[in-house]
Amino acid sequence: MNSLANHLQVEGLRRALPTPPPAPLRPQISVVMVVYMTGPALAASVDHVLAESLVDEFIIVDNGSPPDVAAWLRELGKAEPRVRLIQGQGNVGFARGANLGAAAAHGAGLVFLNPDAFIQPGCIAELAAAAIGRPAPCVVGGRVLNEDGSEQRGGRRGEVTPLTTLLTFSQLSLASQGLRRFEIHREGEPVPTGPVPMPTISGACFYMRALDFKLLRGFDEGFFLHVEDIDLCWRARQAGGAVVFQPRATAVHLGSTSRKHPLAIEWHKGRGLVRYFLKQADSAGRYAFALALSPLILAAAVARPALRTVRPRR
After folding, report:
1. Residue 295 domain-assigned?
2. Which of 262, 271, 278, 261 lies closest to 298 in space, CA to CA?
3. The pLDDT of residue 138
4. Which residues in the chain come in under a pLDDT of 70?
5. Structural domain of residue 91, as residue ranges?
6. Euclidean distance between CA atoms 61 and 35, whole angstroms
């Protein structure tokens, strides 16, 4: 009888306690993709994301697709419960679009992916694993590949400065052994066996903890297109965090799929670099130096499409 009485007493106390609210359903990984005039690569990129079981939430920020693509995205949002679509803001630029997507995300981890990049199996798991134990804020970039499987330029880069940029853009960094130390791109070096520190990674496919992204206040929206990823990496390192290259996380990046003219894209890149170098200058002398080199940087950026015909892009 005593055991029965004790049981009834315990049950009575349990029922008297308030029922705890159900734990909120919180996605752990949110993929953020900014879309603008991407072309046919978009559908394949979306399919690769939705095929990844680790993706709990897929936020697509449509900065102004053609009517048929915009309609397709709306139908996708209705049919796929993981997709959240943000439309109607117009072409606000990549940085602001990505910030809109991140602000709407619920995941503890954010993966930013270009709409012409195809994540490969295991990519997201490897990106997230490389951030474990790293100081905040942490940025983890994947190994970006061309369609033929070769490593693409820009996936892992050294320190981006006015001098290294000019020598790389003009290809003078490859003209002699003495100038090779100024070459920004490191895809020609042996592939590391695991995650390694890297000054700059590619914005085509990278991972951040959501809290780290908020700590940096997201992308600098003063960059309209390009260079915002370089700036994000620099600010993470300045804040005492880590930038990491994870070679085991791979994504195939087509590149040059935008319907915008290549000269317009390179112009934005040149403007972004000029802004970045002026922002980075920590003294009057360095500011003056960056300002003096600005016309050369803009000219070199716009001339890059012609230079690629001389030296094919890797």
Report:
1. no
2. 271
3. 98
4. 1-27, 256-262, 304-314
5. 29-160+184-258
6. 6
What pairing do the DSSP bridges indicate for beta strands 109-113 and 205-209? antiparallel
**Inside any domain, residue 301:** no
| Tens-digit pLDDT profile for residues 151-180 | 999 999 999 988 888 887 777 777 777 777
As for how many domains the chain has, the answer is: 1
Name every residue whose Cβ is closer than 8 Å to that of residue 203 and which is 6 or more positions away in sequence: 112, 114, 228, 229, 232
Asked, for residue 119, whether it belongs to a domain, the answer is yes
CATH of the domain at 94: 3.90.550.10
Considering all CA atoms of the chain, what is the largest pairwise distance in Å, rounded to the nearest integer? 94
Tokens of 146: 């061309």
Element at 203 (helix H, strand E): none
User: Alpha-carbon distance 204 to 268, whole Å?
Assistant: 16
Query: Could you read off the pLDDT of 231-273 as tens digits, one per residue?
Result: 999 999 999 999 999 999 999 999 765 556 667 778 778 888 9
Any domain includes 280? no
Q: How far apart are CA 12 and CA 7, in angstroms?
A: 9
